[in-house]
Amino acid sequence: MKVIETCAEMAALCAAAQRPLGLVPTMGALHDGHLSLVRQARADNETLAASIFVNPSQFGPNEDFAKYPRSFERDLQLLEEEGADLVFAPPPEEVYPEGFDTWIEPGSVAEGMEGEARPGHFRGVATVVAKLFTITRPDRAYFGQKDGQQVAVIRKMNADLNLGVEVVTMPTMREPDGLALSSRNAYLTPDEREAAPAVYRALCAAEDVWRRGERDAGRIRRAAHNILGRETLVDAVDYVGIVDAETMRPLATTPEDRPVMIAVAVRVGAVRLIDNLVLE
Ligand code: AMP
Question: Which structural domain, as residue segments, surrounds residue 126?
Answer without folding.
Answer: 2-170
